[in-house]
Design a protein that fits this description.
By secondary structure, the chain is mainly α. α15 runs antiparallel to α16. The radius of gyration is 22 Å and the shape is globular. It contains 19 helices and 2 strands. A two-stranded antiparallel sheet has the order 1-2. One of its GO terms (molecular function) is calcium:proton antiporter activity. Vacuolar cation/proton exchanger (CAX). Translocates Ca(2+) and other metal ions into vacuoles using the proton gradient formed by H(+)-ATPase and H(+)-pyrophosphatase. It is a multi-pass membrane protein. This is Vacuolar cation/proton exchanger.
Length: 453
C-alpha cells in the first residue's frame, strides 16, 4: 500500500505537511462550527479501485473526482444539475427548471465548505477562516446578485430575510427541540459568550433596518423620503461592513477560542476526520471555481423561473423567497446542525445557526446594497413594517431563548412555532390581496418615489 500512497497527494508530500500541521499551528486551532457541521454529512471514499489505475495524471483526476463528487451523503442530488440544464435548454416547464435547480444547489453549498476547508490546510487557519467566512453563504450572495441584475429587488430582500429567519427559528428551533428530546434526561448547556456576540450584531443590524423604515413615518414628502432612505441605507451598509470586519478580527484573531469546536466535539466516530488534506492545493482551487460557476448557473435559473413556479404552484413569490429558497439552499448545513444537537453538542449547532444569520445580516445584505449602488440599481434597507417586525421579533425571541446558557425541548418548540406562524403569514398575505403579488405592492411606493428623483 505504501507504493500507492503518493497518488492521494498532488505533490507527493501532503502527508508530511498535514502531520506537521497536526502537531503545529494547523492543529492548534479548533475547527469552527461550520466545518464540524458540514463534516457530519461527509463520508469516507473507498479509493481501492481508483488506486489500481496506472496512469498518474488519470489516477489523480479520478481521486479528486471521487473525493469531491462522491465524498458527501448528498451526492445523489448532483444528478439534478444536468437535468436542470437539460430542462432549461430543451424549454421544459419553467417550474421544473426551478425545482431541479434548487435541488442541485443543495449539495453544492456543502461542497464549497469542504473545498474551503481543504484550502485551509495549505493557506493556514486565518486565511482558511476568511475563505470560510466569505464563501459560507456563497449561494445566497450569488442568487442576490443575479436577482439584482434582473432588477428583482423584491426577491433579493425576501430571500435574504428568509435566510436569517430560517437560521434563527427553523435551524436553531429544530436543533434545540431534537436535542432536548434526544437528551431529555440531561441538562443541555452551551457557552453563552458566542451567542451573546452574535445576538449583539444581529440587534445592530436590526437597528440599521428600522431607521430607514421609520423615515416613512417621519414624513418629509415622498420624493425626499425616498432619497433620504437610500442615502441612510448606503451609509448604514458601510458601517455594517466595518462591524463585520471587526467581527472577523474578533473571531479569527483576538478571541478565536470562543468560536472553536472543542476537542471532544471533534472526536466523533460518525464525523469524517479531516486531519489531512485529501486533494491538492490547485485541485481544491480549481474545483472551488467550478463549483462557484455551477452555483452561478443554477442561481440564474432559479431567479429566472421563480415567477413561473409561483404561478404554477399557486404560491406567492414572497412565500417562495422567504420560506422555500432558504430551506432548500441551506439544507446540508441545517442537517449538520441538527445532527450535532442530537449528540448534545449544542455549541456547534448554535455556531452554525447564529453564525449564518450574522453573516447574512452583517455581510451579505450590506454587500448586496453596495453592489446595487455600483451597478446603478436602487436598493435600500427598508424591508417594510411586516418584514422588519418579523425580523425584530425573531431576534428578540432567540435572544431570550439563549439568555441562560441552558436548553430544553420547549425552547426549540417555541422557536419552531414562531417560524410556522411567520410562514403562514407570508402564505396568507397573498390570498388577502386577490392573488396580487404582495412583494410588488409593498415595494412599489418607495421605488416610484426613488425613480421620480
Amino acid at each position: 500500500m505504501a507504493s500507492t500512497e503518493p497518488w492521494l497527494l498532488e505533490n507527493g508530500n501532503i502527508r508530511c505537511l498535514t502531520k506537521d500541521m497536526k502537531h503545529g499551528h494547523g492543529h492548534s486551532h479548533g475547527r469552527t462550527a461550520h466545518n464540524m457541521s458540514s463534516s457530519s454529512l461527509r463520508k469516507k471514499s473507498d479509493l481501492t479501485l481508483v488506486s489500481k489505475v496506472r496512469h498518474g495524471f488519470l489516477r489523480k483526476f479520478l481521486v479528486n473526482l471521487q473525493e469531491v463528487l462522491l465524498g458527501t451523503k448528498l451526492s445523489v442530488l448532483f444528478l439534478a444539475i444536468p437535468f436542470a440544464i437539460a430542462a432549461e435548454c430543451r424549454d421544459f416547464g419553467r417550474p421544473w427548471v426551478f425545482a431541479l435547480s434548487l435541488l442541485g444547489l443543495t449539495p453544492l453549498a456543502e461542497r464549497v465548505s469542504f473545498l474551503t476547508e481543504q484550502l485551509a490546510f495549505y493557506t493556514g487557519p486565518t486565511v482558511g477562516g476568511l475563505l470560510n467566512a466569505t464563501c459560507g453563504n456563497a449561494t445566497e450572495l450569488i442568487i442576490s446578485i443575479f436577482a439584482l441584475v434582473q432588477h428583482k429587488v423584491d426577491v433579493v430582500k425576501y430571500s435574504l430575510l428568509g435566510s436569517i429567519l430560517s437560521n434563527l427559528l427553523l435551524v436553531l428551533g429544530t436543533s434545540l427541540f431534537c436535542g432536548g428530546i434526544a437528551n431529555i434526561g440531561k441538562e443541555q448547556k452551551f457557552d453563552r459568550k458566542q451567542a451573546d456576540v452574535n445576538t449583539l450584531l444581529l440587534l445592530f443590524g436590526l437597528l440599521c433596518h428600522v431607521l430607514p423604515m421609520m423615515f416613512r413615518y417621519a414624513g418629509n414628502g415622498a420624493e425626499l423620503m425616498g432619497t433620504q432612505t437610500l442615502a441612510l441605507s448606503r451609509a448604514s451598509c458601510v458601517v455594517m461592513l466595518i462591524a463585520y470586519i471587526s467581527y472577523l478580527v474578533f473571531q479569527l484573531w483576538t478571541h478565536r477560542q470562543l468560536f472553536e469546536a472543542s476537542e471532544d466535539d471533534e472526536e466523533d466516530s460518525d464525523v469524517v476526520s479531516d486531519e489531512s488534506a485529501v486533494i491538492g492545493l490547485w485541485s481544491a482551487f480549481v474545483w472551488l471555481v467550478l463549483m462557484t460557476g455551477v452555483i452561478a448557473l443554477l442561481s440564474e435559473y432559479v431567479v429566472g423561473t421563480i415567477e413561473a413556479a409561483s404561478e404554477s404552484w399557486g404560491l406567492s413569490v414572497s412565500f417562495i423567497s422567504v420560506i422555500l429558497l432558504p430551506i432548500v439552499g441551506n439544507a446540508a448545513e441545517h442537517a449538520g446542525a441538527v445532527i450535532f444537537a442530537f449528540k448534545n453538542k449544542l455549541d456547534i449547532s448554535l455556531g452554525v445557526a447564529l453564525g449564518s444569520a450574522t453573516q447574512i445580516a452583517m455581510f451579505v445584505i450590506p454587500l448586496t446594497v453596495i453592489v446595487s449602488w455600483i451597478i446603478g440599481i436602487d436598493m435600500n434597507l427598508n424591508f417594510n413594517i411586516l418584514e422588519t417586525t418579523c425580523l425584530a421579533l425573531s431576534i428578540i425571541v432567540t435572544a431570550f431563548a439563549l439568555q441562560d446558557g441552558t436548553s430544553h425541548y420547549l425552547k426549540g418548540l417555541v422557536l419552531l412555532l414562531c417560524y410556522l406562524v411567520i410562514g403562514a403569514c407570508f402564505f396568507i398575505f397573498r390570498t388577502t390581496n386577490n392573488h396580487a403579488d404582495p412583494v410588488n405592492i409593498s415595494f412599489r411606493s418607495s421605488n416610484e418615489a426613488i425613480m421620480r428623483v
